[in-house]
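Onboarding guide, step 5: your first structure request.
Type a short instruction followed by the sequence, for example:

Predict the 3D structure of this protein.
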Amino acid sequence: MSQKTRGRRESRLGPRDALAMGAGIASASAAARPRAKAKPSPVRPEDERFMRLALAEAAASDFPLGAVIVREGKVVSTGRNLGVTNDDPTAHGEMAAIRRFVAEHPAKDLKGATLYTTGEPCPMCMGAIVWCGLGRVVYAASVEQLSKHVGQIMITSRALAEATPFADIEITGGLLAPEALALFDKN
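The system replies with structure tokens like these:
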């Protein structure tokens, strides 16, 4: 068999062969990648006090979602959903709190801080939380609970955190969820 014929025969992989090879490569590389640690975190004594501040932000927002960022036991930023007011679909409470903080401080100062939010962060907000290096998220209502009141992308904050190999983040969910959900009835 000539060199030319052999080359043609070797390159005759069908679509299934190519898919199988790609899947093998993808699974091998996925297995080799380190996984993030989305660590469950128990409720701490100070959590209820800070979540109540987030609930107050949510009550004052144009859509009942609010957030508070705490560093070393002190509130360093707050945010409320202003999507309607600002005609900005990215103006979620978490994003507002992050933006407010970085407008006055270096973003690196968010590393290790805790973000309290009345609703489990959506993928956009969770992405921002991870990129900022926040060390912990405490949320009230879960994505599943929120989906009964408002459209949701059904990806949990834990799933997004676990898909982030460069960051570890603690997650506490369900704190004062009934109170957060009650705000939707008032809206």
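Each response can be followed by summary notes, for example: Residues 1-35 have pLDDT under 50 and may be disordered.
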